[in-house]
Design a protein that fits this description.
Length: 352
């Protein structure tokens, strides 16, 4: 379908608010098909182990998606205990739920600048070197889920927020700015030869300079022989993001030829910079933004569509809702009913 045709379809399907009505007040078909049944790639959602205790949410996950990402319970903050031991009960439960329901599982995340457990900070290097402890962690975690995950976010948010180089962290200080990243990818490949290994970051749609630095890091990893086999763009965006920014970003990321994971999509109403926009207009723009994200992803070559992951299906389960109770960033409302955002995804997946 041409760009003109895509815009025509999207424009006609997302004319959802006018005359002061909210986007959600417009009719949303009650019989929308499940997202996973119409998308020609995996559609995912983040999840916590406690979510699986909610029968309604568990049923919604089974109906709508075919890939899960543990929201935080595969991160160091959960796994590494104060004494240096590892805890796997919650990620094991999520992995078992995915397997029992025929869903893919995305490992998230092995190394993140923002987390430096005390056990690493106070490491006794007379017993084990820092590099060996770093490798041991990656081997233990990625090895535990070998063959159970389709991929890993190996290194998360490595690029400085302003795009001026890479972030400083415990890992970079002890192992080197670039080497700790390359070492993580080499070790993850050793632990799981079959998984797609991804570099994941955020604000790539908003900040061209950060995006350029992200791409240069990916190119350097590839040139070094590090087994980078995919890239992820989180896409925590606001409803007032300028039309076209997501599309431009996706085209830039596609230039590497690697599979792309749209990895953590949500569209906040309350984080919008334009405080003059009313709720109705924000909801209209939210639906449009979900539609553009789907459209930009659909425009990728098939081999580059790794997966399309929503950072929560229902508003009430979103981290953004916890941050601001008036936010409603997800495609489904608190009760799991589809919103205009869900209709936009369905329409784009179905007709693009």
């Amino acid at each position: 379908m041409s760009d003109v045709s895509r815009r025509t379809v999207l424009g006609s399907s997302l004319a959802l608010a006018a005359c002061g009505q909210t986007a959600q007040s417009q009719p949303v078909p009650a019989n929308l098909p499940p997202l996973k049944t119409i998308a020609p790639f995996r559609v995912g959602s983040s999840v916590q182990a406690l979510h699986l205790d909610d029968p309604a949410l568990a049923a919604l996950l089974r109906r709508q998606v075919n890939q899960l990402t543990p929201e935080w319970q595969m991160k160091m903050e959960y796994i590494v205990q104060p004494d240096g031991s590892f805890r796997f009960d919650a990620p094991d439960r999520i992995a078992a739920f995915a397997a029992a329901n025929g869903m893919a599982l995305l490992g998230h995340v092995l190394v993140w600048y923002a987390q430096a457990p005390d056990a690493f900070e106070r490491l006794d290097e007379n017993r084990v070197s820092f590099e060996q402890a770093y490798r041991n962690y990656i081997l233990a975690v990625a090895g535990r889920y070998r063959g159970k995950v389709v991929g890993w976010d190996v290194v998360n948010e490595a690029v400085a927020e302003d795009g001026d180089g890479w972030r400083t962290s415990l890992w970079s200080r002890r192992l080197g700015d670039f080497e700790h990243i390359a070492l993580a990818f080499r070790t993850a490949r050793e632990a799981d030869p079959g998984a797609t290994l991804l570099l994941n970051d955020y604000n790539l749609e908003y900040m061209p300079r950060k995006r350029a630095t992200f791409l240069k890091l990916a190119e350097r990893l590839l040139a070094s022989g590090a087994p980078l086999t995919g890239i992820g763009t989180q896409m925590h965006v606001a409803a007032d993001i300028r039309p076209g920014e997501i599309t431009t970003m996706m085209k830039d990321l596609a230039s590497l030829g690697l599979p792309i994971h749209l990895s953590e999509l949500d569209v906040s109403l309350t984080r919008s910079d334009n405080k003059l926009l009313g709720r109705a207009e924000l909801e209209r723009r939210q639906a449009r933004t979900y539609g553009e994200a789907a459209e930009a992803f659909m425009a990728l070559p098939q081999r580059q569509r790794f997966a399309f992951t929503l950072w929560g299906l229902r508003d009430g389960d979103s981290w953004l809702k916890k941050e601001n109770a008036s936010d409603a960033p997800a495609p489904f409302d608190d009760a799991g009913r589809p919103k205009a955002a869900a209709a936009a995804l369905v329409e784009t997946f179905r007709r693009s």
